[in-house]
Amino acid sequence: MTTEADPVLRNWYQHLDKGQKFRVVALNEDEGSVDIQYFDGDVEEIGLDSWYELDIEPIEAPENWSGPVDVAEVDDLGTQITDTNSDDWAAPWQEIKSEEQGAGPEEGEDDWGEGRPREEPWEGEL
Question: For 45-49, 57-61, 67-71, which range has the lowest pLDDT when averaged over its residues?
């Protein structure tokens, strides 16, 4: 059986005989090619003529559609779940701001409140 479904960019399809799921990631009608990416991440380029000979059907995106696109974090899926609050984002700026205002370590101390090594002039600087 051949497909009557046109390739649509970012749509999902399934091979009826193999059960493999894939999505169209590029479509070049001028060259007559379709790039598809299987759920396992493999990418394949096929001709438009070959496309219409495939035994496939359009499907809804899989529940875990992130398989082929290497989304590692749940936040990358577009959810509002985050464990970072707004104060965490401002913290580095507050550190820089306070150092510019002179709230840094005392003269002669390093960042940990310990003494700095005494510098001695070079022999040529005496």
Answer: 67-71
